[in-house]
Amino acid sequence: MDPPRRGSFGSSLLVALGWYVTVFAAVFVGSAGVPTNPNQDCSVIFACLTPQEGFVLAAIVGAPVLAAMLLTTLAITALLARRVPSPALAGTLSVSITVGLAVVAGGFWQAAR
Q: What highest taxon heads this organism's lineage (predicted)?
């Protein structure tokens, strides 16, 4: 009898990173396709940013959150790749668990404010 087949850590991590790239590309394309309001009031700070400038600003501000999510995904992928035989399933589960943890942490942060 053969031992159960384990998924590859590298392949699982590539699947997880692929999910991040897919989501960020979808958000960028979706926000770039929205037309701007011609009667926009630019008296408020950051009110007249182009979608590309807004995306860059969000990337700069969200970089610590993204770094924490990537490190969490790395740790969870390392644990799941040993137990789940499919790299696609292990990578998808690790991203799903990380997003769930980020939502819970954001909820606690909002409640503490």
A: Bacteria
Please state, in angstroms and as integers, the Cα–Cα distance from residue 11 to each residue in 26, 31, 48, following that order. 22, 30, 41
Find all residues with CB under 8 Å of 63, minimum gap 6, and list them: none
18/92 Cα distance (integer angstroms): 9
Q: Taking the complete model, does pTM exceed 0.85, yes or no?
A: no
* Interval 85-96: pLDDT, tens: 899 999 999 999
Distance from chain centroid for Cα 22? 9
Q: What angle separates helix 87-112 from helix 63-83, to the nearest 10 degrees?
A: 140
Is residue 49 within 8 A of residue 31, CB to CB? The reply is no
